[in-house]
# Entry
Amino acid sequence: MQDIYSTNPKTLGRGICIITGASRGFGRALAQEVSYFSKPGSVLLLVARSNTMLQELKEELQSLTKDQQLMVHCIAVDLSTREGVHETVRVARQEAINEMDHVLLINNAASLGDISHFASFTNLDEVNSYLSLNVSSALALTAGILQVFPCRPGLRWSVVNVSSVFATQALPSWVLYCTAKAARKMMFGVLAEEEPNVKVLSYSPGPMDTDMQVDIRRLTGSNHHLLPCQESAAKLMKLLLDNNFLSGKHLDFFEV
Amino acid sequence: MKKSTEHTVAEHTHTHTHTHTHTHTHTHTVPVPPQSFSMSSTERTDLGRALCIITGASRGFGRAVARDMSRLVKPGSVLVLAARSADDLRALQAELAESEAGKAGLVVECVVADLGQVEGPESVVRASKAAFSEGVEHIILVNNAASLGDVSRYTKCFTDMTEVDSYLSLNVSSSLCLTAGILQAFPQRPGLQRTVINITSLCALQPFPSWVLYCTGKAAREMMFKVLAEEEPDLRVLNYSPGPLDTAMQEAARSRTADPSIRKSFSDMFSQGQLLTCEASCTKLMKLLLEDTYTSGAHVDIYDL
# Structure
């Protein structure tokens, strides 16, 4: 891991990075990677529901990056609500810095949903609520941030969709999760087709040691070898720094 | 060469051979409808005594499905037709009542419903349960109702979560809840075949600029029905892509699409007479159902046939 830090001279530039689901798990690990690779004067917006955990993360990041003048803002909102999405966009607009050369949006917030037989999903409100957080929210937020920071020459724009192997692989009892991940993969694929100046990456991080995985184990009895979040986050960071990926691609931790 | 994690639809590993035995005798009290395709000894000529549920049945492809189904189901069958337009549904119901099948006893029920609302799928399930009778040997659910979404805007313009939620409710959630409700209402049992059809699109597989809602919804549905196929090996699940049809949806596509090259290609298809009639595409769908050899969960496009 040390090799990546010492041999890669690339940075994310001086810009604004927004990470959703930043308080724990993969989002938190990404926040650490981003703060390390951002140039002085950059802004990092951490979005999650828990203000307490976000503030702890902010303190941790600021203590690690003292000299870097990284401005960290915590946005404690529920992204399954339009108010949550609007507030995130509002703060992004408010905290934008002059002479920014990079916007990086990482759509990581997600939920597992009920793992259950297909025939059990007769409740439209439950399904709508799930799709609202896992699909609509990512679309509305991405659109909102694109409106705040329109593409222009000299501005590097990167969007990450934290995806899953289950975006392309159907798994019994996982209809909600598979459906939402497949939806997001296509959604970000359309964005990539439309916006030649936005680099879009769907990244499948592999099975990681997160709270979501605890739920998966409890509900399914599965017992994979789990990756440390930091390891998968480092790999995603390398992809972003190298910036060689084709926009719209769906890449998996185990492939790159 | 890096191995791709993207599974093409052809790699879907579900191989299912379906054996279907009729235990009743065929007694025709009316002339057998003329066959428009060749019969082999293994191909069925009808879909049995069926309860067939069709959403978006009032016009376009859904209406063509209702008409073809009426001709292919045996006497004692019921069609449950769901749509928002009461007038159009009743007109179709009247037309079918006057048809040969209607006169032979085909029952047609109408359900006026907005599938994007909670009551929508529930009312269709209720009507289907009420329409069921013990002689029914085949449940056929055709998830056809859909909307195009606003194709005049690009992805970056969809800042309103409510609009996206509403779109997904109709185009994704309702087909999950309706299908789940029907499967619960009519569980697997010997002597009952269950077929679930998802009307899909090339847009489920390929991103189209300025079509974010439609592509997202179709991709979501296709995965949804693939999960169903994986879970329920006794169920026949067909993701049928009907091709570019000459419908109101197509008219909206060619007149409102923001992306110039997509709009032109739709416009050219129309002006060059390359759009398919709903009837022509529906005929192919019926053939697929009668042959019943498709791989459950597979994406089958009319141009593959």
Q: What stands out?
A: Chain A touches chain B through 61 residues (CB under 8 Å). The first helix of chain A runs from residue 2 to 7.
